[in-house]
Specification:
With about 250 residues, the chain is of the alpha/beta class. It has a single domain, classed as 3-Layer(aba) Sandwich (Rossmann fold), CATH 3.40.50.720. The chain contains 8 helices and 7 strands; from the N terminus they run βαβαβαβαβαβαααβ. The chain has a 7-stranded parallel beta sheet, sandwiched between helices. Helix 1 crosses helix 8, helix 3 packs parallel to helix 4 and helix 4 runs parallel beside helix 5. The chain starts with 10 loop residues before the first strand and ends in an 11-residue tail after the last strand.
């Protein structure tokens, strides 16, 4: 059921859209009546996802760390939908490693995708939105970008960069274009499930005040709100959705 009628017919690009937070967000915007353009580097997963909703208008296989791929994806969306109203820059990766075991190759890969991809997609969106004098840019950061977490030094640093990128863009693009980032805590996505055993998930849940991981749909709901007119005075914000994980010390 649509809750934000102003999102109907909005042209929305979502990266990392084939699964997890990206796919749940695509479904949410589609249910609001928006026209969705899905981008993902996994061709097989994207092909499967693209048939998931009548309002999935198009898709494009792209690596967000490639400037050429990003430019081609926006050109494809221009040709199909005539432009963009909302970007949800969501694609990202994480690799669980001790700091001393992180190779520079891994560091660069995580940075290129998680931060470089945000820069490349947001720049293309901003160019178009400035020209049309309207638009919303949303990015997936992380609660890991707000404080230290063991075993994810490269990921944490990349997500901290996303937060400051969003804030800086918000200052430069106001008042015509709003820019915000969402900082999820633990979300039960395929990426998370692949990294954590059942025992690790249970132990993690014990340290979260809400005693569970978020569902991807809950993150998608926040994105829909931030793109809506109900959030038209919100820009430059990093909004945590983490079940209270970063609120302070928590004893089980």
């Amino acid at each position: 059921m649509a809750r934000f009628p102003e999102l109907e017919k909005k042209r929305v690009m979502i990266t990392g859209a084939a699964s997890g937070i990206g796919y749940a967000t695509a479904e949410r915007f589609a249910n609001e009546g928006a026209e969705i353009f899905l981008v993902d580097r996994d061709a097989a997963a994207l092909d499967k996802a693209a048939g998931g909703h009548a309002n999935f208008a198009g898709s494009f296989v792209a690596d967000v760390a490639s400037e050429d791929d990003v430019k081609r994806s926006f050109k494809a969306m221009d040709d199909l939908l005539g432009g963009i109203d909302v970007l949800v820059s969501n694609a990202g990766i994480s690799v669980r490693s001790d700091f001393v075991d992180i190779s520079y190759e891994q560091w660069k890969k995580v940075m290129d995708i998680n931060l470089g991809g945000m820069f490349l997609t947001s720049k293309e969106a901003a160019i178009r939105m400035k020209a049309q004098k309207s638009g919303v840019i949303l990015m997936t950061a992380s609660s890991n970008g707000t404080e230290g977490h063991r075993w994810y030094a490269d990921y944490n640093a990349s997500k901290a960069g996303v937060i400051l990128l969003a804030k800086t863009m918000a200052l430069e693009l106001a008042p015509l274009v709003r820019v915000n980032c969402v900082c999820p805590g633990y979300v039960l996505t395929p990426m998370q499930r692949a990294e954590y055993t059942d025992e690790m998930l249970a132990a993690t849940n014990e340290g979260i005040p809400m005693k569970r991981h978020a569902e991807p749909e809950e993150i998608g709901a926040l994105y829909a709100f931030l793109a809506s007119d109900d959030a038209k005075y919100i820009t430059g914000a990093d909004i945590r959705i983490d079940g209270g994980e970063t609120a302070g010390l928590f004893s089980v």
